[in-house]
Amino acid sequence: MSIVLNKSQLQHISNLIEMKGVKYYDVNMELTDHMASEVEEILNTERINYKQAVKIAFLRYNRFHFMKIEEEKEKKVRKQANKLFWKSLLQFFTFPKIAFTAMAFGVSLLSIRFFSFNSVLFFPIIIAVIMATIIDVKKRKAFGWKSFLQLNALTPRYIGLLVITANAFNANLYILTIKDEPLLLQALIITAVALISAVLLEIYNKHINTLKSQYA
Questions:
Q1: Is residue 1 included in any domain, yes or no?
Q2: Does any domain span residue 67?
Q3: N or C: which end of the chain has fewer CB within 10 A?
Q4: pLDDT tens per residue across span 167-184
Q5: What angle is formed at CA 88 by the lines to CA 86 and CA 94, rounded to 5 degrees?
Q6: Model confidence pLDDT, tens digit, residues 81-117
Q7: Residue 25 is assigned to a structural domain of this protein
């Protein structure tokens, strides 16, 4: 009868991998599954106990092996995230999502007309903060404080993109402001922030649903 590791032993291996510098839960689980298979193979072929088998399995790799694997996966996932983001963004300029783009632009123009100059100035920042809050709440509700590569590869850099866009918005307002007339630039930048937010939330929700099926 072949030996299969129990939950406590799997958690022990997971903890060891985390101590090796692996910070993402999904990467940790993948590596835990791989190392558990190696430990089980050793236990089924040699007359030694679990701790000895674990030691043998981990000694096969240097101290930076697991970190390097995570780094390679991170580069790959970030590249995929970039492609997915731009592909999803371009879809907002095709039917039927073009309706959302037009609506966002229309609302932006109306906002510029009916709100004060100073209020409009902070619209992109407000949108970015709301989007970041929604994403954080969704993640915490689904997975608590666990960190996932699939989610981290997407959100930090594009939340940063929102902030940069908001800052560009503010800078251009001070340079090109015409307080009595709604600037096209204002509406375009607010619309851009709204589109980026919509794309991030759409992709984020898909990733959360996928990860839920695997880890929740």
A1: no
A2: no
A3: N
A4: 666 666 665 555 545 567
A5: 110
A6: 889 988 999 999 998 899 999 999 988 888 877 876 6
A7: yes
